[in-house]
Design goal:
alpha+beta, 6-stranded mixed sheet, 3-stranded antiparallel sheet, aminopeptidase
Length: about 625
């Protein structure tokens, strides 16, 4: 049950002005305040029968706030942001010792299950209903849900039944999304028969074992698909043959360009008819299901999709897949002490995106951002943070050098001295400018350093000032130290801005940064009793892959010592901090030994809270 008529907000999610809050802050405030007020229906008027049904209200309300934010800005950019969050935080949880279904089976402390699985993956489950039923069908299901259950405490099955009954739909094994943990892995192969003019997609799926669930059943996975012709245009889809039946895809004599395939078995085949040329498939459009997709799409076809796909999410995704493949290849070279070289076609592809005036500017910023280090580490058998960091740094520097002219022009063309406005066009302009500036500032030459410093000094809002500060502080040295000092001097009396300052330094990839973070613990503006400050500094540090996972274990020891202290002050915050150690088995033996020692040290403490005990014990038992 949510509080009726009384909402208590974290200060950073309600207090904002252009001088002190960034576009990211404003967007978070928009989403969170929307989320809490949407709870008046999904959480108050209809609430949960018990805590195990938490996603019934939270997953549904996250979906609603995502849709609200999409309507207020760019739907594609919001979708990219949500999927990035899912992959960065929820996928690792699904693959680790704390993996649990959207509806958990058990818990020691309920506090520990306010998780990205319950919230973000839960929202993806709700989104799949909409994908399967369409907007009108989903609305019919929501209307029936409220009609049946207004004033009641209900279960996830009640929501499922409302969607199913309102549309007379067959959802087969869809309820497994609530009971099975883990991220499904779906493999797709394709073939074209020129004589029969058919295009075939073969699907296979598996859900990896997770703690307490070694055997998994096939999931109900909606896969949105489109086919592109040789000119990059969507091919009208007339019919698909599946499971002994032919389904007509055209509706009301209108052409269909995207269809949703229902993958419900371990292996399935779908055959499209009347396809006059070999197409390029656009798979999982709009990220229609929270899965890991592996396909036989060639690099040439991915570059083609990057240039032509009408589904903007998949256009971005094509670039991300190319980026992931490139980074993994270079990581292998780095580990074998081979010289690193950057594929020129990749550079040219990003250059084309950067110069496309028809694209949304915030989309461009997302498209020329490389996959994050954690995502690449998750794709490796043994995570190597040093190699991944070295490779990502190499690629960014090469892109900066080869596209220097384009990046500088992007900065100059997107400056504005106009009064700050929080709307999509201005947010997009600032996002692209600051992304370009971050690339420019990597280059070690006076012109680039002066450009970044000028952007910092002339900024008229926090988004641009902090963007310039972030760009400058990528490189160690006197200028970095002076600008950080200047920023603190300006904002030392605004604790929310100071928290940004803490986070920026904590997440720095500068070698040996753990010593700098230790010094910041003694800073007069830091207080271990303040959760926001803990999340800013200590949480920020644990997200610096290369320093937190330092080979000497200094990052692990730093966190372990602080978790012990925090547990006496705020067990909920401490349990969230210790989660950073939960996937210690993903690393090499040296790191495993060092991380495990910290978990054992935490477990040996007298009076350990149930919150921390649950996370630490499950991490060790994995």
């Amino acid at each position: 049950m949510e509080n009726k008529s009384l909402n208590i907000f974290n200060s950073r999610l309600v207090l904002a002005s252009p001088e002190t809050a960034t576009d990211t802050d404003y967007a978070a405030i928009l989403g969170v305040i929307g989320h809490e007020y949407f709870h008046n229906w999904t959480g108050n008027r209809v609430t949960c029968r018990d805590w195990f049904q938490l996603s019934l209200k939270e997953g549904l309300t996250v979906f609603r706030d995502q849709e609200f934010s999409s309507d207020m800005g760019s739907r594609t950019v919001k979708r990219i942001a949500d999927v990035t969050k899912l992959r960065t935080f929820q996928y690792p949880q699904d693959a680790g010792p704390m993996a649990h279904p959207v509806r958990p089976h058990s818990y020691i402390k309920m506090d520990n299950f306010y998780t990205v699985t319950v919230y973000e993956k839960g929202a993806e489950v709700v989104r799949m209903y909409k994908t399967l039923l369409g907007s009108q069908g989903f609305r019919k299901g929501m209307d029936l849900y409220f009609k049946r259950h207004d004033g009641q405490a209900v279960t996830c099955e009640d929501f499922y039944s409302a969607m199913k009954d309102a549309n007379n739909a067959d959802f087969a094994n869809f309820l497994l999304w609530y009971s099975q943990a883990g991220t499904p892995i779906v493999q797709v192969t394709s073939s074209y028969d020129a004589e029969k003019k058919t295009f075939t997609l073969n699907f296979s799926q598996e859900v990896p074992p997770t703690p307490g669930q070694s055997v998994k059943e096939p999931m109900f996975i909606p896969v949105a698909v489109g086919l592109l012709d040789s000119h990059g245009k969507d091919i009208p889809l007339s019919a698909v043959h599946h499971d002994g039946k032919i389904e007509s895809l055209s509706a009301d004599s209108q052409p269909t360009y995207t269809t949703v395939l229902r993958v419900t078995k371990k292996e399935e085949k779908f055959v499209f008819s009347d396809i006059s040329e070999k197409p390029v498939p656009s798979l999982l459009r709009g990220f229609s299901a929270p899965i890991r997709l592996e396909s036989d799409t060639s690099d040439d076809d991915l570059f083609f999709l990057l240039s032509h796909d009408s589904d903007e999410f998949n256009r971005w995704e094509a670039g991300q897949i190319l980026g992931r493949k490139l980074m993994l290849s270079l990581v292998s070279d780095f580990q074998q002490n081979k010289p690193l070289t950057l594929n020129q076609k990749f550079v040219d592809g990003l250059k084309s995106i950067l110069g496309d005036k028809n694209l949304d500017k915030e989309f461009i910023a997302k498209a020329v951002t490389l996959p994050v280090e954690g995502e690449i580490m998750d794709m490796m058998d043994v995570a190597d943070p040093d190699a991944v960091h070295a490779v990502r740094t190499f690629i960014r520097k090469q892109l900066a050098l080869q596209l220097k002219t384009e990046f500088i022009r992007t900065v100059e063309e997107n400056r504005s001295s106009e009064q700050y406005e929080f709307d999509h066009s201005n947010m997009a302009r600032r996002a692209l400018k600051n992304l370009a500036l971050a690339y420019v500032a990597i280059i070690d030459d006076p012109e680039c350093a002066e450009l970044a410093l000028n952007e910092y000094k002339t900024a008229t809002n926090m988004t641009d000032q902090f963007g310039a500060l972030t760009a400058i502080t990528q490189n160690p040295g006197k200028i970095r130290d002076e600008v950080l000092s200047d920023f603190y001097g300006k904002w030392q009396n605004d604790y929310l801005v100071v928290n940004k300052w803490f986070t920026l330094q904590a997440m720095s990839d500068i070698p040996g940064n753990v010593e700098n973070v230790k010094k910041l613990l003694e800073h007069p503006a830091f207080d271990l009793r303040n959760p926001n400050k803990v999340y800013a500094l200590i949480g920020g540090f644990s997200n610096s892959r290369v320093n937190f996972h330092a080979k000497d274990g200094s990052g692990y020891k730093f966190l372990g010592d602080l978790v012990v202290q925090l547990d006496k002050i705020n067990p909920q915050v401490a349990s969230r901090m210790v989660s950073a150690l939960s996937r210690w088995k993903r690393f090499d033996e040296t790191r495993q030994t060092l991380a495990k020692a910290e978990l054992e040290k935490i477990m040996s403490c007298n009076g350990l809270s149930e919150n921390v005990f649950e996370i630490a014990s499950k991490s060790l038992a994995s």
